[in-house]
Structure formats: C-alpha cells, structure tokens
Please model this.
Amino acid sequence: MKEFRTIIIDDERLAREELKSVLKDFVEINIIDEAQNGDEGIEKISQLKPDLIFLDVSMPGMTGFEMLKKLEYIPYVIFVTAYDEFALKAFEVNALDYLLKPIDINRLTETIEKLKQKEDSDFESSRG
Model:
C-alpha cells in the first residue's frame, strides 16, 4: 500500500494537533513534518518533497493560495479551513479536496479514498 508523506501547514498549533490526531487512524498517511506559515511551508516542501499537504487557507503573511503560487514542486493539496467561501478557488488550483474545520471523520475518510484513487489513476497514466 502506498504511504503518503505528508506535511500539515496551519498557523494554529491546536488545529495541527487536531488534524494529526484524526489522521493517525489512516495508515496510508505518514506525517513527516508541519509548518506554521507559508514561508515555512515553502521551505519544508522544497526540502522534503512530500506527496501530500494539508493546507490552511487563512494564515498571517501569506494565504495558502499565495503559497501554492510560489512552489516549484506541488504535491497533492487538501485545503483545511474554517471558511467555505474559498472552496471554488481551491478547485481552480487543482486541490484534491477542501475540508471544513472542525474535521468531519466521514468526510476525511472520503477525501483519503479520493487521494488513493487519484494516485492510482496518476500512476496508471504515467506508465501508459
């Protein structure tokens, strides 16, 4: 089974802790690091080349969207935010999914399934 090397990027420590807590039940998610703002996120993504990031939209200094624009290497992106009004924009930047805080476990399970299906189809198309 594929393991997704994952970074959580959120300015709120409690939000990162909560997300780590709910993700521990998903064996395919391996959290390798976390960042508390866009600059730190960019640095860690370029160093660690994760497969997946959970990204907050609203952070001081730089939004999640602004951060994505600055990346050379873009992993799968799942936005996690308290604001539903950015959902459309999230899909415009090819986000895999958009989760609202507090995280709903059933919704997260659907998202992880979507991630695995996307990985399978990307893998197949890269081989074909």
Remarks:
- The longest strand covers residues 29-35.
